[in-house]
Amino acid sequence: MNIDFNDGKWLNEPASWQADATGLTITTDEKTDFWRETHYGFTRDSGHFLAFPTTESFTAQIRIQGEFRTLYDQAGLMVRLDESRWVKTGVEFTDDEAFLSTVITDGRSDWSVSQPFKELEDFRIRVTVANGALRIQASRDGRRWPLLRLAPFPAAGHYEVGPAACTPERSGLMVRFSEFSIGPAITTDLHDLS
């Protein structure tokens, strides 16, 4: 089911955002981020996240459009239980290129990047949570969905999921989110790319 962005609840509402029937456009505030401890030694919970409630299992997907140019510019989907248990996945700009990035946090954050395709100014991300597992897929066209990550994630009776964006090194990244849906957890085989 497609989601009305006006029905979400902000964590760290950006100063500039607009939602309509076709999507959500936000402009990031200065030095926003989500991270806990690992490597850097700091905890940040200042990124922009528009939360929608879910049940204990679901699949959510969203289309993301933006010009990611500055170190750590990022946008995608977040799944959140609380400030110490969450995942953010989508695009992140690092080492002078855009990568698909996932940070899974259960007390402390980890970070992984990959580049199954380079066209990351307009792409889609899909997250499935079911039975204590998190499955992340990405797509250039909304038809072919290669696996980005499979990981354990705390089982719970409900989660929050929705678009997220951060700019740890600046402000002013404009991101457009659209085609956002939440539905039953997909049960296709891991190697089914549909």
TrEMBL record:
<dbReference type="Pfam" id="PF07081">
    <property type="entry name" value="DUF1349"/>
</dbReference>
<protein>
    <recommendedName>
        <fullName>DUF1349 domain-containing protein</fullName>
    </recommendedName>
</protein>
<dbReference type="InterPro" id="IPR013320">
    <property type="entry name" value="ConA-like_dom_sf"/>
</dbReference>
<dbReference type="InterPro" id="IPR015987">
    <property type="entry name" value="UCP022704"/>
</dbReference>
<dbReference type="InterPro" id="IPR009784">
    <property type="entry name" value="DUF1349"/>
</dbReference>
